[in-house]
Every structure is written in C-alpha cells, then in structure tokens.
Amino acid sequence: MTGWVTIALFSVCLLASVYQHDRADFVALSRTGCYGACPAFEVTIYSTGKVIFRGDRYVAIIGRREYRVNVDSAKSLFSLARQIGFFSMPRGFFGEPDIRQLPNGSAETTHTQVSDHAGRLITVCLHDTTKTVQDDWGVSLGIAELERAIHRVARTTRLINKE
Q: How far is CA 80 from CA 26, 35, 83, 85, in A?
C-alpha cells in the first residue's frame, strides 16, 4: 500500500510541476533576419530560470539549446519590464526616426520605413498578460535596455557571436 501512495504522490508532484512550468511567466527576444548576414534567433527566459535558445541563421549555435540561469536574475527582467512601462508601450516603433523642429517650436517625429532591416521583438508574459513590442530601429531606450538585460541574463553572446 505504501508503494502505491508513494507512486501517487510522485505522479501528483510531477503533474503539478509540468502544469506550473506551462504557466510560467517568460520574457522572449526574437531577432529576425535581413537580406544580409544579420543574426536570426529567439531566446526565451522563464521565471523558473529555464532558458530556451533557438538559433536560425548567422549565429554561432544553430538549433535549439536549453539551459538554466539564476532564478533571481530571470525574475529581474519582469521588474525591469514594469519599470520601463512595457505594458503601456505601443505595439511597435517602426522605421528610422526623423525628428524635425516645427516653426511653432514643437517637434514632429516621423519614421522612415526600410524593408532590409533586422526585426527586434520582445514579448513579456506576466500573470496571464502577454504583450509583444517591436522596435526594429532601437527608437525606445526602454526596449534597448530590456534587450541588453535579456542578453546579459541569458548569456547569449556565446550563442550568437561567431568567432
């Protein structure tokens, strides 16, 4: 009888851990390719410390790699996302910014659309809220800061840079 209880408890714990993993919050960075040799990859960091890297083109590691990082470091990405107002940002910042001064003293910003530019998308899933922001040109300083933090926490340099 004790054996069956042990197996039942183990099964419940196993199912609970699988369920919790499926519901884990995450931050993901996707870099799309361009017409040249732009690195194309995706890295997803879960609140549990699990990291999944998928290299597509022009990266040191092609294919899927799974590894772990410090849980507190992973969770710091969610704090940063809140700090920069990620969930209040527009869905995207498109094109190269062109800021010009108007005769009345105010500034006007327009964006130049270019088709041969690598895309940068960051997705944050936190407590059943998921949002993706695209910033191909690095217009948003907050998005740039979050991208640097993602690279630092996930230690992507060794996976991306071909040496």
A: 13, 32, 5, 9
